[in-house]
Amino acid sequence: MEMNTEKIDYTRHYKKWHSDTPEHIQAMKHYSQGLLIPFLPTNKEISILEVGCGMGFAMLALQDLGYINHEGIDIDYGQVQSCLQKGLNVTQVKDSTAYLNSHKNQYDLIIALDVIEHIPQEGQLDFVKGMCKALKPDGQIICTVPNANSGLASRWRYIDWTHYLSFTEHSLDFLLYNAGFQSIEVVPTEFFHPPNFRLFFSRSIFRSWFWKSILQWTIFRFIRGFRRLEMIGELGWEQGISVPLSLNLLARGSKQP
């Protein structure tokens, strides 16, 4: 089950945050590479499918990294057209689960960035099982979802009308395991990173954005520290110290042979 693409123009929402300007494309490629590089196989000839590829930023990142065999699917017409204009191998589908079920044992890696939360809960297990079926034996999945532990979990959950739920590290592990994945690893992923203090002695010190980034980082660390204390206070030291607090969670798992 997925949203009716004949009635919903998802591009309306997506373009509030993304565009096809060269500057934004470059920024998103850089972000996608930072997100994916620690988890990507070293073999650049593997077959990769990105489910819910959006405007193709992650595929462009893979292309720049030297991966030569990648394709994408999405249900939104506007985003697929954006991908095609970039020369990417992308197909518009009406039902991603059906597509995955019809491509069994075909891919070495499936990427689903901020996708699973868009699937109604009653269809999520079948959807993730479909990704598992589409993988070759020992193939891998890399996925990201909104983190229900985050201090902004409610905004992150409801910022998109097509979101159905958020996840904790435990519920995401549960879903992947029951879909047929093993060796599951769930880690936090951050959108905000420390300012580049190597610029401190350069001319950038005089630019307002540099000081704003330092101030934002200071506030971020203070709020995140308070949130960690809250978790320890509510859950006890053993649980509270390890709860991921990032806006998103990333999971990697392998298909059972």
Task: Please write the string of helix (H) and strand (E) elements.
Answer: HHEHEHEHEHEHHEHHE
CATH class of the largest domain: Alpha Beta
Structural class: alpha/beta
Strand arrangement within the widest β-sheet reads 3-2-1-4-5-7-6
Helix content: 40-55%
- Number of beta-strand segments: 7
CATH architecture of the largest domain: 3-Layer(aba) Sandwich
Please tell me the total number of domains.
2
**Helix count, per DSSP?**
10
End-to-end CA span: 27 Å
**How would you describe the shape?**
globular
Q: Whole-number radius of gyration?
A: 19 Å
Pfam families: Methyltransf_23
GO molecular function, one term: methyltransferase activity
Protein name: Class I SAM-dependent methyltransferase
InterPro entries: SAM-dependent_MTases_sf
What does this entry look like structurally?
The chain has 257 residues and is an alpha/beta fold. The protein folds into two domains: 11-191 and 244-255, Vaccinia Virus protein VP39 (Rossmann fold), CATH 3.40.50.150; 197-240. Helix content is 40%, strand content 19%. The chain has helices at residues 11-14, 22-36, 57-64, 77-85, 96-101, 121-134, 153-158, 169-178, 208-235, 237-240; strands at residues 48-51, 70-74, 90-92, 107-113, 135-146, 181-189, 248-255. The two termini are 27 Å apart. The mean pLDDT is 91.
Describe the secondary structure blueprint for this structure.
Layout: H1 11-14, H2 22-36, E1 48-51, H3 57-64, E2 70-74, H4 77-85, E3 90-92, H5 96-101, E4 107-113, H6 121-134, E5 135-146, H7 153-158, H8 169-178, E6 181-189, H9 208-235, H10 237-240, E7 248-255
Parallel strand pairs: 1-2, 1-4, 2-3, 4-5
Antiparallel strand pairs: 5-7, 6-7
Helix pairs in contact: 2-3
GO molecular function, one term: methyltransferase activity
GO biological process, one term: methylation
Protein name: Class I SAM-dependent methyltransferase
